[in-house]
Amino acid sequence: MEALDYHAEERRKAEFNLDEMKIVWAGSRRNYELSDRVARLVASDPVFRKDNRTMLTRKDLFKDTLRKAAHAWKRIIDLRLSEEEANMLRSYVDQPAFTDLHWGMFIPAIKGQGTSEQHEKWLPMAYKMQIIGCYAQTELGHGSNVQGLETTATFDPQTDEFDLHSPTLTSSKWWPGGLGKVSTHAVVYARLITGGQDHGVHGFIVQLRGLDDHLPLPGITVGDIGMKFGSGAYNSMDNGLLRFDHVRIPRNQMLMRVSQVTREGKFVQSDVPRQLVYGTMVYVRQTIVSDASCALARAVCIATRYSAVRRQFGSQNGGPEIQVIDYKTQQSRLFPLLASAYAFRFVGEWLKWLYTDVTQRLQANDFSTLPEAHACTAGLKSMTTSVTADAIEECRKLCGGHGYLSNSGLPELFAVYIPTCTYEGDNVVLLLQVARFLMKTVSQLGSGKKPVGTTAYMGRAEHLMQCRCEVEMAQDWLKPSTILEAFEARAVRMSIACAKSLGKFSNPEDGFAELSPDLVEVAIAHCQLIVVSKFLEKLQQDIPGKGVKRQLEILCNVYALHLLHKHLGDFVATGCITPNQGALANEQLRLLYAQVRPNAIALVDAFNYTDHYLGSILGCYDGNVYQKLYQEAWKDPLNDTVVPDGYLEYLRPILKQHIRTARL
Ligand SMILES: CCCCCCCC/C=C\CCCCCCCCCC(=O)SCCNC(=O)CCNC(=O)[C@H](O)C(C)(C)COP(=O)(O)OP(=O)(O)OC[C@H]1O[C@@H](n2cnc3c(N)ncnc32)[C@H](O)[C@@H]1OP(=O)(O)O
Ligand SMILES: Cc1cc2nc3c(=O)[nH]c(=O)nc-3n(C[C@H](O)[C@H](O)[C@H](O)COP(=O)(O)OP(=O)(O)OC[C@H]3O[C@@H](n4cnc5c(N)ncnc54)[C@H](O)[C@@H]3O)c2cc1C
């Protein structure tokens, strides 16, 4: 007998070819097939079960994480999975683990900052997981201010070694994932000192634990920093603390691509910019942008499917009540998030290209695009994670009371996701980096140096400062060039206004500090322009499949116009559009929501998430929400007994006392 599909009618309404949309979402047919195969592999494996995760104690959760990581590694070896497939497998296992840092930061740090000899020595062991590493940068006293780190690595020419030391309490390493209980090694960031001179922060490969007994090596204090936000969630990760008491490592364990220390203790700075020490962060920020689209898509998939099942009010003549997805307020909250998921997917694809391009250039000693790559990764990491974190919470509210149940999947997704706004660079700190880059670009406008890449639009500042939006009717807002020009004009006008205000300060740094809230807004406007423009560029491509391109055009317009509506103050205050044109944009937005509506379920089906990965009763594919919620309630350990533990000690005496009091 065929299983019931509560969304069948919704799926029939779709006006586009779902299979082709799945390929667009995955990036290519090959990606789609790989990802689909790996997702099913994980979903069908009982070791990767995760429905009881939030019930586990921290210790049990951690052991479960070790078990899953070991099993994942076995599957990767047995099935001879490629690196790409292995990464997919770990992400579908969907439980933060030390392996994220080993593969995501330790290995990239050695690859990016190590010499070829260091690659030869360390990478084979790391690839085989004969050593497990983490990324130990942040300290108790400093995270954002990397130049403020206090751990020292003092070169001793007598022994040809570095002496690693934690001179103060605040110099204790604090937060690195995988450090607390697992890592045998770390890339440690410390101040390099030679001949009494401080050369700033550099990376060092340091062994922390014995490879036979897993005990900390002499001079090393290491442990977990404790429980974090939420149940389950990021508590599967052993974020750690680490102190060094004059720990000795050989000289060749300093990562020496950027600078070297010779046998005699001479510090040599190569032609490579010192910012390359920050290269791993650029890499990870780029991956975080793609991950944002996955997390956002996941929350939106849950909220959309549930909104189509849930009915409230409006029954006529005893007929069914209205599906909550048909309420305009629900649509105006949900559909922009759906559009944002697609927008972030495409900007993530583009950012991956940008990162690959900058990496190839760096290999050829061309460092010219590094500042732009830094600004783009920092800004887009900040913008996409902030939006996604807020969106997950919005999706929880869109699911009403049931969204608050753990088995909706949304509370844990929120808890596991929100630290992305902080790790890999606090989002405000990163936006200020973008603002610095923009102010520098504006200051060079008169110099004849032509802005390129994502700031190329500033080269047309003269036109953008005085252009007038030509929208007269709501449908005029559907013209890509009209949307693009409005976003460009807003970004350039906000940048130039801020630059002018900065010019009024005698000390530019004082001005920057004073105007930093405005500068953050400027950076956001610039990042939103990047996302809008990359979505529009995507639509220039040949996109096959009945109705697929049309749906993407609708989503792109929803994305752009909802931003315009949300930031109307900026657009009107800078004179880019009139209040009436703002009202027309809103009118058009409502029409677009009506076009999204029949396609909403198919648009989230295109994410191709398995029920295992979604981990949500409200978002399950078949929409059989009520029956599953009811069954699941009985599985809660509180329902193991009819009368709860503690009744005799605590409840009964109160109840009896009440009876006695009543009798008095
Ligand atoms: C339901 C369950 C679901 C489960 C789901 C599970 C899924 C899990 C899957 C995966 C998990 C993800 C795995 C990843 C986990 C990541 C863990 C996080 C790791 C970390 O957090 S590591 C630590 C990161 N730390 C930071 O990011 C620190 C932030 N600070 C900085 O980056 C810098 O210090 C700074 C940017 C703030 C700069 O400070 P400043 O002092 O001004 O800088 P200077 O050193 O003086 O340099 C200024 C100069 O350099 C330019 N610059 C700065 N950074 C860079 C760079 N990265 N690249 C290039 N250039 C850079 C800067 O613009 C200045 O240039 P200028 O002089 O103006 O031209
Ligand atoms: C779950 C998790 C995992 C992590 N994993 C790792 C890891 O594997 N390895 C590692 O090395 N680190 C790791 N970290 C640390 C992380 O990178 C830092 O916490 C992060 O970079 C933020 O730095 P901070 O904690 O010093 O924040 P702070 O800089 O102290 O931020 C506090 C507040 O001050 C504001 N602020 C700071 N500076 C400025 C400024 N210049 N202008 C305006 N406002 C400012 C911030 O916006 C924020 O509101 C992890 C953190 C978390 C939460």
Automatic annotation (TrEMBL):
Q: Sorted alphabetically, which keywords does the UniProt record give?
A: FAD, Fatty acid metabolism, Flavoprotein, Lipid metabolism, Oxidoreductase, Peroxisome
Superkingdom, natural source: Eukaryota
Which positions in this protein are listed as binding FAD?
Answer: 138, 177
Keyword Lipid metabolism attributed: yes
| Acyl-coenzyme A oxidase N-terminal domain sequence ranges | 18-132
Q: Where in the cell is it found?
A: Peroxisome
UniProt record similarity statement = Belongs to the acyl-CoA oxidase family.
Name recorded for this polypeptide: Acyl-coenzyme A oxidase
Organism placement in taxonomy: Eukaryota, Viridiplantae, Streptophyta, Embryophyta, Tracheophyta
